[in-house]
């Protein structure tokens, strides 16, 4: 098993002692006495690497990408996340040069890419299907693009050897794709994409063909590789866990627009809308009306009682607002909590989803609303105290969830 990395956005101690010098150079952001993070987007002096400036892409009358602006920084692992058809692949294809914006500019290192054909761009795109040549061996597959570019034979041999080592495929150099596992084929495709040493690697659902376990392992390999190479990776995925595991930042997209760009933990803990909250991970959303908003708190009147939540900002009394809280942040008890007049909701256990390490309790509130509470299975199944049809209390702290206004 690969060693678990620090969470994205916290690429710190391990990388900064040793090869991590590169990160010091690009992002000297101090966030405390011990920790420095890779966060060029917080550095006003950081230069954009890839830029979308008011880009619209239309196919006929259909708008696939809608007046979108975005900055990606050098050495970033950036994920485009969103439902099918939201425009992720179209954005990647505009970086690679397979599509041109209808309006607006895509820039690389400050230079507009308009008119630059794909083969002249320092980008390479790896597709989900891998598109390996079945009749060629692993090494000839990796060498293919280099040969086409007219690289001298000896250099090609060196580069292929380097790539085989990088993706740990040296023993398989003479095999053909059908003699490899799915994960090995994925690594050949990766080696082939990296062979020309592009500045930007574009990965379109790169792990879609792998089973879950291999996918998880490969995610870590890919992020380690990206860090070691110091390259910029842009990945398209509709798998939010994949984006969370690998990316420094995630752009959540909806209908050709970006709804939020932030680090995985910000996207998860501070979604800016119900759309993002709901798209990334499991969440309970409770609708209410603002009763009071002052002193860093909002009091919400909801059909399930009063919720008092931490909130920095101002919302007018009487406005609609939503309290969003992750299932793992909901306590579940059989006894009524002491402060049952607020942040406590009574219900009945309707269903229990057993996931092995944890169980998801679906709690019915009576008026058709169901909330979820995730409980770690620290005791064996037979010993667990809360079961189907039990009357229970869900409770939470004021800062356990987030108040959303849209
Ligand atoms: N060449 C094209 N002609 C017409 N419409 C297109 C073309 N390419 C993409 N589209 C449309 O643009 C929209 C965005 O497509 P895109 O492939 O970027 O979505 P996506 O977010 O990558 O989806 P998926 O996750 O399914 O790959 C879709 O509605 C798609 O049908």
TrEMBL record:
Q: Which GO terms describe its molecular function?
A: ABC-type putrescine transporter activity; ATP binding; ATP hydrolysis activity
This enzyme catalyses: ATP + H2O + polyamine-[polyamine-binding protein]Side 1 = ADP + phosphate + polyamineSide 2 + [polyamine-binding protein]Side 1
Keyword rRNA-binding in annotation: no
Q: Which InterPro entries match?
A: AAA+_ATPase, ABC_SmlMolc_Importer, ABC_transporter-like_ATP-bd, ABC_transporter-like_CS, Mo/tungstate-bd_C_term_dom, P-loop_NTPase, PotA-like, PotA_ATP-bd
Record-annotated membrane-spanning stretches: none
Q: Please report the stretch or stretches of sequence annotated as the ABC transporter domain.
A: 50-280
Q: Which Gene3D superfamilies match?
A: 2.40.50.100, P-loop containing nucleotide triphosphate hydrolases
**Pfam hit, one:** TOBE_2
Alphabetical list of SUPFAM superfamilies matching this protein: MOP-like, P-loop containing nucleoside triphosphate hydrolases
- Swiss-Prot/TrEMBL keywords: ATP-binding, Cell inner membrane, Cell membrane, Membrane, Nucleotide-binding, Translocase, Transport
Assembly and partners are described as: The complex is composed of two ATP-binding proteins (PotA), two transmembrane proteins (PotB and PotC) and a solute-binding protein (PotD).
Assigned protein family: Belongs to the ABC transporter superfamily. Spermidine/putrescine importer (TC 3.A.1.11.1) family.
What is the annotated role of this protein in its UniProt record? Part of the ABC transporter complex PotABCD involved in spermidine/putrescine import. Responsible for energy coupling to the transport system.
Q: Identify this protein by name.
A: Spermidine/putrescine import ATP-binding protein PotA
Organism annotation: Rhodobium orientis
Its lineage reads: Bacteria, Pseudomonadati, Pseudomonadota, Alphaproteobacteria, Hyphomicrobiales
Report which gene this protein is encoded by: potA
